[in-house]
Write a structure and sequence with these properties.
Blueprint (H helix, E strand, L loop, with lengths): L2 E2 H10 L6 H13 L9 H8 L2 H6 L3 E2 L12 E6 L5 H8 L2 E6 L4 H11 L20 E4 L22 H12 L3 E7 L9 H13 L2 E2 L4 E4 L7 E2 L1 E9 L36 H16 L15 E2 L13 E2 L21 E2 L3 H7 L12 H10 L3 H16 L6
Parallel strand pairs: 1-2, 3-4, 3-5, 5-6, 9-11
Antiparallel strand pairs: 6-10, 7-10, 8-10, 12-13
Bound molecules: S-adenosylmethionine.
């Protein structure tokens, strides 16, 4: 008899107290991988925590009632570091990969991740021993960029200690996956006058002995989503794989604009700006413009391309739109002034999800504030997938799509 994943999880969660995240990470990773050899990394602990033979027996007959279940008959395995809400995971799963380990310490991001993939990521990566991570073919990481202090030294593996890149490097060193895909903000290229990137490349190329073509700045809008988002991609191949030449994908010729991703129905009045807030934004822009600094709110026309969606730094205000479908202007939140009558509103979290290429089946369970943060922190899936496709082709031959 089949048993739904969500039902099994309800029973499992009811068995634990609050300090359960680690245990739940072990158990869900075991559920995801129990048919593979790598499940040995989770099995003993998972069985110890579960202590329920009947439940364990159900695992072989699980019915995945979540949007992105584990890949059946995977073509390759990967791990998802600094996983966020799994934007990179979707791209790699779409290409036939199976995730065998994930790490993300933000509790709200973990909730989104679990509701979509049926897996709770492990927490702080700096506390995870690289030996406890299963073997995998591809390491995937969108690591946060931090300052590297490398004064007077060559700048390699040991000099990155204390940074999150070090955690990526020590896992690569121990596990030696066939390839990796790292993603970061465009600013990494010029960070500390280029030194940070140089240290990263020295480490990957010389200390870890990977073939690493020059990194590429990739723009999301070139891959079919209406968002001007530039990110740096760094891919690498273990030398014995024999890859000596890598070409990043060419932009695809698909015209898209903001109106393609807008909600089909009128949205809540809560997304519409108050007249008072609009005045503040206009004032703010005037002040900055008079100083020759154009930074401020922006209304994106329906046939335009959105600015990069980011956390903080006017992320939402730089992507306002005009949507005249609102009929009831009664506010539902505590606002100063009244709701503007020109139809000026923020985009919704679902619209942000679409700007990043997330399919509409992606579940958004958290508050709006968390959802904006999560999508702003995430990746444009089509750009990742197009690049990952080139990597997979070189390592495994043709790509299998589910
Ligand atoms: C730029 S985001 C990556 C987003 C992800 N690629 C996605 O598609 O959603 C970086 C993530 O790293 C997480 N993070 C930062 N430090 C961490 C740590 N020490 N251990 C685990 N996760 C960490 C942050 O919470 C954040 O979600």
């Amino acid at each position: 008899m089949k048993c739904k994943y969500s039902e099994i999880m309800k029973t499992i969660i009811s068995k634990f107290d609050e300090e359960t995240n680690y245990k739940l990470a072990v158990i869900t990773h075991y559920i995801q991988t129990h048919e593979l050899d790598v499940s040995k990394y989770y099995r003993d602990k998972a069985l110890k925590y579960l202590q329920d033979e009947d439940l364990i027996n159900l695992l072989s007959n699980i019915e995945w009632d979540i949007p992105f279940p584990p890949t059946k008959k995977p073509m390759f395995t990967f791990i998802d570091l600094f996983a966020g809400i799994g934007g990179m995971r979707i791209a790699f799963q779409n290409l036939g990969g199976k995730c065998v380990f994930s790490s993300e310490w933000d509790r709200h991001a973990q909730i989104t991740y679990e509701s979509n993939f049926g897996e709770i990521p492990f927490g702080d990566i700096t506390k995870i021993n690289e030996k406890d991570i299963p073997e995998h073919d591809i390491l995937v990481a969108g690591f946060p960029c931090q300052a590297f202090s490398i004064a007077g030294r060559r700048g390699g593996f040991e000099d990155t200690r204390g940074t999150l890149f070090f955690d990526v490097a020590r896992i690569l060193k121990e596990k030696q996956p066939k390839a990796f895909f790292l993603e970061n903000v465009k600013g990494l290229a010029n960070h500390a006058r280029g030194k940070t990137l140089k240290v990263i490349l020295n480490t990957l190329r010389d200390d870890l002995n990977y073939y690493v073509p020059d990194p590429q700045i990739v723009n999301a809008k070139d891959f079919g989503v209406p968002q001007n988002r530039e990110r740096i991609f760094i891919v690498g191949f273990r030398k014995d794989i024999g890859v000596t030449n890598f070409k990043y994908p060419e932009p695809i010729k698909k015209e898209v604009c903001v109106k393609d991703i807008l909600e089909e129905r009128p949205v809540s009045v809560k997304y519409y700006l108050s007249t008072r807030y609009l005045e503040t934004l206009i004032e703010h822009k005037k002040r900055h413009e008079s100083k020759g600094n154009g930074f401020g709110y922006e209304i994106i026309p329906p046939d335009g391309i959105a600015n990069a969606i980011v956390v903080g730094g006017m992320g939402r205000e730089r992507n306002l739109i005009i949507d005249k479908r609102l009929t009831d202007f009664t506010p539902v939140t505590n606002i100063k002034g009244e709701v503007n009558k020109e139809g000026i509103r923020r985009m919704t979290p679902r619209e942000w999800a679409r700007l990043q290429g997330f399919p509409d089946s992606f579940i958004i369970k958290v508050s709006d504030a968390q959802a904006y943060k999560q999508f702003g922190n995430s990746v444009a899936i089509p750009a990742i997938q197009a690049t990952a496709n080139e990597v997979i082709k070189l390592v495994f031959g043709e790509v299998k799509k589910e």
